[in-house]
């Protein structure tokens, strides 16, 4: 074990269990160098330091991050790989040319401050920190930062369940325009199967059994998401419409995607559609003029001929609705129908304990409403004076029993109202 200088910087050279360790201590202070050396020796004895990890720590962050992501590829879905590469871009801009071993806690905290100053959400910053943490753990250096760097707080959003009129409005508007047809089909499937957007995009025709009216989710967010879902009438009609649409373009093969790519008029059924973000944003923001009833994008004035009424105070009731909220709504309706937790999880796949607790509360409220509807309130009958006197002392008060007035039982039926799969629906 020895300390030595290179220039003004202290270095260490020691051996633990026959393995030699040499590295810079990144300090010019002798006492600090002693303290760091003792820490490194303790880490080496605890198995937190190895020669290979030291070599990894000497890599530039850009190279280390690429190696880290390459190691994770076999365990990730293609979408997750693309997402992590996207998150690594911001990190490379900040740390790309720095060696991993030279990154400090202050560097990471400064990165967080800079990202927040640009208006980046806490969730996005946390995903970037996940990659940074993975690289530093691989270099056996994360323990230097764990006390100072923590994930940013997130607002745990349970999700949004639609009112009956909001659900009908969503489907009616989505079906009203040809450019929103794909978003309409996807919305009906989500509302009737609990499928996530990524599961719908990854659906192939080999996963659909039109005879038995079931579809199989082969790849999902988690292993628990891989499941078989029966198709109800609304979902089945949409799948048939999608099949007929695909037949018009040629043969429908098992490996073809149900929601296929269509870029600039070029259709490729072998490639999945990336999404329907633009259509979804437009249809959830669309407003109806209260005077002429014309559906249009939000603006100050109505664009209808000879109308021009003010739309400044008119907003869509489904503004801000996320596509993922449709899954939440579908599970909420299952809970309201007294479906058990095990059945919900069999249909919806992975559901966190927090979400299950939420749906259990929804189910309890549905039970309470159903039982309250059975409550029978009997009106108090006025007792005539003739009945309050003249009774024999050997008998208790004797009240005449007349016909009992039975309260009317009001049954509150909650019905899941579907909508036909045909895309052309009147918006008036």
Structure description:
The chain has 428 residues and is mainly alpha-helical. Among the domains are: 48 residues, no CATH class; 84 residues, DNA polymerase, domain 1 (Orthogonal Bundle), CATH 1.10.150; 124 residues, Orthogonal Bundle (hpI Integrase, Chain A). It contains 14 helices and ten strands. The strands form four sheets. Strands 1-2-3 form a three-stranded antiparallel sheet, with helices on one face. α3 packs across α6 and α8 packs parallel to α12. It is elongated and about 85 Å long.
Distance from first to last alpha carbon: 84 Å
Q: Provide the structure class.
A: mainly alpha
Question: What would CATH call the homologous superfamily of the domain at 164-276 and 323-333?
Answer: Intergrase catalytic core
What is the fold-level CATH name, i.e. the topology of the domain at 164-276 and 323-333?
hpI Integrase, Chain A
CATH architecture of the domain at 164-276 and 323-333: Orthogonal Bundle
* Name of the top-level CATH class of the domain at 164-276 and 323-333: Mainly Alpha
> Strand fraction band?
5-15%
Q: DSSP helix count? A: 14
| Rg on CA atoms, Å | 32 Å
Binned, the helix content reads 40-55%
Oligomer: single chain
Sketch the topology as an H/E string, one letter per element.
EEEHHHHHHHHHEEEHEEHEEHHH
Shape: elongated
């Amino acid at each position: 074990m020895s300390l030595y200088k290179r220039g003004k910087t202290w270095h260490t050279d020691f051996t633990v269990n026959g393995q030699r360790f040499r590295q810079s201590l990144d300090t010019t202070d002798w006492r600090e160098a002693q303290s760091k050396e003792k820490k490194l020796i303790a880490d080496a004895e605890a198995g937190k330091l190895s020669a290979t990890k030291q070599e990894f720590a000497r890599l530039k962050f850009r190279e280390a991050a690429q190696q880290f992501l390459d190691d994770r590829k076999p365990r990730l879905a293609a979408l997750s790989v693309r997402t992590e590469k996207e998150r690594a871009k911001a990190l490379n801009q900040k740390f790309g040319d720095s060696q991993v071993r030279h990154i400090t806690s202050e560097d990471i905290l400064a990165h967080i401050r800079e990202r927040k100053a640009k208006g980046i959400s806490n969730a996005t910053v946390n995903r970037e920190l996940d990659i940074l943490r993975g690289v530093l753990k691989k270099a056996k250096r994360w323990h230097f930062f764990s006390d100072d760097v923590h994930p940013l707080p997130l607002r745990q959003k349970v999700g949004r369940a639609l009112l009956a009129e909001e659900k009908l409005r969503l489907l009616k508007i989505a079906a009203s325009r040809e450019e929103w047809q794909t978003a309409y089909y996807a919305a009906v499937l989500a509302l009737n199967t609990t499928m996530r957007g990524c599961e719908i995009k990854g659906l192939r025709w080999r996963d659909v059994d039109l005879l038995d009216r079931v579809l199989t989710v082969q790849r999902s967010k988690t292993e628990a998401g891989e499941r078989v879902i029966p198709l109800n009438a609304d979902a089945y009609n949409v799948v048939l419409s999608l099949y007929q649409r695909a037949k018009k373009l040629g043969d429908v093969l098992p490996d073809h995607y149900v929601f296929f790519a269509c870029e600039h008029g070029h259709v490729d059924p072998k490639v999945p559609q990336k999404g329907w973000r633009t259509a979804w944003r437009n249809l959830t923001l669309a407003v109806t003029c209260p005077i002429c009833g014309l559906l249009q994008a939000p603006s100050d004035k109505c664009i209808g001929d000879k109308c021009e009424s003010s739309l400044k105070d008119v907003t869509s009731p489904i503004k801000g609705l996320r596509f993922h909220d449709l899954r939440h709504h579908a599970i909420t309706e299952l809970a309201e129908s007294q479906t058990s937790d095990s059945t919900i999880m069999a249909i919806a796949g992975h559901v966190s304990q927090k979400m299950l607790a939420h749906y259990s509360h929804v189910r309890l409220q549905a039970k309470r409403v159903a039982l309250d509807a059975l409550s029978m309130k009997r009106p108090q009958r006025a007792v005539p004076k003739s009945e309050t006197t003249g009774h024999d002392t050997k008998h208790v008060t004797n009240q005449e029993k007349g016909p009992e007035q039975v309260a009317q039982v009001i049954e509150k039926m909650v019905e899941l109202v579907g909508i036909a799969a045909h895309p052309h629906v009147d918006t008036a």
